[in-house]
Amino acid sequence: MTSLRTSPRLPPKPMTRAAREAFGRGHRRGAPRSSHALWSPARDRPDVLDILTATDRERLPELLPIRYGRMSLSPFAFLRGAAAVMVHDLAPTPVTGLRVQLCGDAHVSNFGFFGTPERDQVFDVNDFDETLPGPWEWDVKRLAASLVVAGRQNRYDRSVTRRAARAAVGAYRETMARLATMRYVDAWYFHLDRQSQSALAGRAPRKLIDRAAAAARERTSLHAFPKMTRVKGGRARIRDDPPLIVHYRDSSVFEASRSFYERYLATLPEERRMLLDRYHIEDVAQKVVGVGSIGLPCSVLLLMGDSDVEDPLFLQLKEATVSALEPVLGSSIYTNHAERVVVGQHLVQEASDIFLGWSRHRSRDFYVRQLWDMKFSYDISALGAREFIGQAELCGTALARGHARTGDPAGISGYLGGRPVFDAAVTTFAEKYALQTERDYRTLRQAIKKGRVTAETVG
Q: Exposure string (b/e) for 347-362, b if CB count within 10 Å is 16 or more?
């Protein structure tokens, strides 16, 4: 098995596609495909609460009860907030040594629609807070495990949760095989637009995709403006919704935001800076987002254009800290963790937000993106069994496309092969890990009940 902290053993170049596939198959000797089914908690596995609280050190203490309140809602919510726990559990599992740029938190709810710079709609991974180069197997296993956890929570039959996990891994394997036959540039441009989604996810009803795409089109700054703002003194202000959206008590935050904003602009291409120069900062407020991110400082900037019509633009400033993967995979080459997130997102995503950038404020790293950019993720709990399996296929396809951009699709495909040996093994792993997640979830609930952890359920 390849050491996780050493550089991956790469094939000499140039090599033919057949040679690269053979190179990938050669890794089966050190990590048989069936070995990916193996998993059990280590005897010296730390208390899950110790792992979680270790990630709280850089979070705002007043928001931690909301973090644990959201994680306590369900096993799937717990999984979403416990990336560090799963990284710890994946560390001793078999890996081939073939590396890619990992999403790092590839659970099923971190996939969805968003708008490209050309205002097309694509389906892709949409969260990169944990991104880092690492074993491609880890993203696949987190996706499969999340599908089993979510499916069990939805009270699907075991046959459905197994089919969903196998559908995701099978789609990953088949897509990687397809990408391995393409020219590098064609594989880079491969994407999941509305038409390809319908074709690839044969079991996902087209109405589901159409509804999601329609909902995504409505999620823009202009549509959010009436809901998120109020007029005070003739000027637009972000509407408070405590404790999820609140204005900062310190009046200096507004001026600090201006200086941060200027440093952020320097990370954008010239044409993006020119566009943002036409806007001015109107207001700033703190906003709670997600599950795993709760407690990390996050702000919303309201920008307004100098025009006679409403021209709002909401930007989100979100802190980036040490990736949950770094304790195992080693430190990022980027000293600014927000730059790590932005670079990783550009590497993996087909098309990223045109305002994606980063900066630093008072020794904290922040990345910037649009708050509303035609983004939409399915409510997993609302999907029927057929839709759920279709969603799993889409996620597996998107994950393979992302991995192929930074890894060797021929090498990975050679390892995976044409038969579903790996699919079955990872599905077995996912079922085992789903049970562990449910045990960890109960541990958290018990700690809350006994007062060891403070939790508050809001929003």
A: bbbbebbbbbbbbbbe
Q: Is 140 helix (H, G, I), strand (E, B) or coil?
A: helix
Q: Measure Cα distances from 434 to 12, 35, 46, 153 in Å.
A: 39, 18, 18, 10
pLDDT, one tens digit per residue, over 13-70 is 678 999 999 999 999 999 999 999 999 999 999 999 999 999 888 888 888 999 999 9
Where are the extended beta strands (E) located within 273-363? Answer: 279-287, 298-305, 312-320, 357-361
- Token output for 22: 């053979």
Tokens of 307: 């025009």
Cβ atoms of 300 and 371 within 8 Å: the answer is: yes
Q: What is the mean pLDDT of residues 432-458?
A: 94
Prediction pTM value: 0.91
The first and second tokens of residue 70, run together, are: 């959201």
Cβ neighbours, 10 Å, residue 226:
11
Q: CA of 165: how far to CAs of 47, 60, 108, 281, 393, in Å? A: 28, 36, 10, 45, 9
C-beta separation of 400 from 172 below 8 A? yes
Tokens of 120: 């097309």
DSSP classification of residue 309: S
Report CA 16 to chain centroid distance, whole Å. 33
Contact between residue 67 and residue 81 where contact means Cβ atoms under 8 Å apart: yes
CB 239 within 8 A of CB 245: yes
Do 25 and 417 touch, CB atoms closer than 8 A? yes
Q: Which of 364, 407, 454 is nearest to 53 (CA)?
A: 454
